[in-house]
User: What shape does this take?
Amino acid sequence: MNPPLLQLTGVTKSFGAVRALRGVSFNLKAGEVHALLGENGAGKSTLIKVITGAHRPDGGTIAITGVAVVDLTPTAAQKLGIACIYQQPALFPDLTVAENIALRLGRSRFFDRINWRANQSRATELLGRIGAAIEPDAEIRSLSMPEQQLVEIACALGAGARIVVMDEPTASLTQQEQQLLFAVIRDLRANGVGVIYISHRLDEIFALADRVTVLRDGESVGTKDVGEIDEAGLIRLMVGREVSHIYPPPESAPGEVVLSLKDVGCTASGVNRVTLDVRAGEIVGLAGLVGAGRTELGRVLFGLTPADSGEIRLNGQRITVRSPQEAVAHSIAYVPEDRRRHGVILDMPIAENMTMAIHRRLFPGTWLNLKAERNLALDFIRDLGVKAFGPEAPGVSLSGGNQQKVSVARWLATKPKLLILDEPTQGVDVGAKSEIHRIIRRLTQEGLAVLMISGDLPEVLGMSDRIAVMRGGTVVATLQRGADAGEVMTAALGQSAQETAA
Amino acid sequence: MSRYIRELSVVAGLGLILAALSFFAPAFFAPAPLLSRLAAEVPALVVALGMAVVMIGRHIDISVGSIFGLTAVLCGTLLANKVPLLLVVPLAIVAGATLGTLNGWLVAGLGLPSIVVTLATMVTGRELLSLWQQGRFITLPNGVQWFGLSQTAGQWTLLIIALLLVTLLAWASRRLSAGRFVYAVGSDPEAARLAGIRPGAVTFGSFVLLGALVGFAAVLNLVQSPQVDPKAGGGLELKAIAAAVIGGVAVTGGRGRLWGVFLGLLLLTTINPALTYLHVEAYWEKAIQGTVILLAVEADRFQGKGAAK
Assistant: This one.
């Protein structure tokens, strides 16, 4: 029997007092997709960095096709055929595809003449091998995120990679793009490449992977064939405890209509004729493919790109929302997508982040009341279970899930009637995810109306009381709780005429 | 304590220089020249405070020297025409704020990059000044210099105004919503917008505030001499930016304390006389100032990584 492509045995790595890896063994066979799973902080990224030579392990051995490797450096790893494709492709945006590929693969010296023709044909060939319809002359900045990932994969192929590591490659992809990527990955697998695949989305792992290894607290807690384990089993392995309800069920009947949209449109952002109701105590999930107009609708309701047609009613009153300030005045709150960049101000302390939207109410006098601010922050930290050193800790010191909680707290502080959540659990680990879900559900029990935008289909299905599916900037179907993934996807893709009047 | 490490390092640097001076050149501490030197730096301090606000908000204003010069000549003309000083002070502030409004409108209203906008207004302002004044000095009437007080009393008045202003602005930056919003916008304008803050209004306001402070600074400068120099304020922008950076204001916005800027300017302006008293060639002055600025930026880089605010 051939030795495995990659074999790690008892790898340990500590950073100061933190033991990131405590004797991890892991192997990757040629021609398999091996998923790596674990909560944030379980040691996934450290393990990847050991494999790509970015971190030197403190102990344990690494063998590639049975040959022990010592002193693995990034350059050595590249030469041995290890390539890593990150979530955010690391390409030069102002150079063309062919130039990027040539730079990555070339060993040209400073004053060498550039062979444009060879670069061009090599790029064409590599892109053709993965079936990517990308012009080698296109500038990287003109490509979509998935196209950039394909360029990365082409680079990996060109470098003769035998081991390809993919770190959450689908985080910003639409369903279709994801399918294209999966096809490329399956193709790599068929050609004997070993793929290490990291993702938070369990359905992808079942769709794609052959085996899955779960890491927890720096240890491998099991490697399974995907055929012999189910989702619940995987989650149990990851969190090490029984997760009884992944999605907390609704416990009260929805009340009055809070938000009522009639033919709302915004030419600038492509939202057109959206009709939708959201009731007090109700979670309406906004589903759809990327580009269907979900985030755009959220931004319209928050006044970031104001509506230019139709009627928005809040508690029956007709309102206009021309700016975020007006939205806040109408008790509409919006927790934006992409919290890492814009949900919290990373430089600022938790307390200052939490009071950012309520200065006028919390501080009616001339001076800021720092004591009132601190108390409010302490309340939210306790209420939402934010794990932090204290209200003075800067946003950047928090994990993704806790940043998201701070972002939610900022808007709960405004005592909103309508809470718009855009991808509330994107990039958040499983434990924090179900915590955030419980918080959302609890808020609706207190009478809040929630509009939840999410590209995570299981989340939409599990959390929503009703699901509004968007396509082409408008709501094409409204489904009741209990709808299955197929119905949502059919509506989102527009493959059938089962559109119900919203 | 660790959150003030940046400011404390400036204090340490200052302490070191002063210790060296008290050992090698105790003459440095003779009261009269020391008071004069400090009073002479008051206008630069006032400008640096405003500059720090703009920089914390992620912008920059290199036209402060021109605003300073224009306001100074305007005030000089008014004073020469027997307008009382008490009336000229508010007029100077309004004039400065008006010029700041122009910068603020171009930057926040039209969304142009502040370095280009203020480069343009700096050059235009200087040229207007040359056309207007043709290099002529304006002789001020009696009773303007040192506010009509004795020189010592006038200098003390300037110092007291400076300290009051530092205290007031440092407090306001921490304890007013407006101050908080400047930090928020400087850290992440898009995040601030999503939190319901209007980044444009904050940026606009910071330029107007800086303009007003520069106008005030022009008067505080003018009362120190019998004549108004139409070239007043040349190089002021560099000094103000340097003081802010040395004092811990991040060029990338969102970080810095106004009392740190006060320390930064003290350090910056102690270097030059220190060199004189320690018998170092004056040629080294700019080189040493440059080194201090580089050190400050480098320190911010590390601090940024540790994410201490």
Observations:
- Residues 495-502 of chain A have pLDDT under 50 and may be disordered.
- Chain A touches chain B at residues 304, 323-325, 327-328, 334, 336, 341-349, 352, 356-357, 359-360, 363, 366-368, 370, 394, 396-397, 410 (CB under 8 Å).
- The two ends of chain A are 60 Å apart (CA to CA).
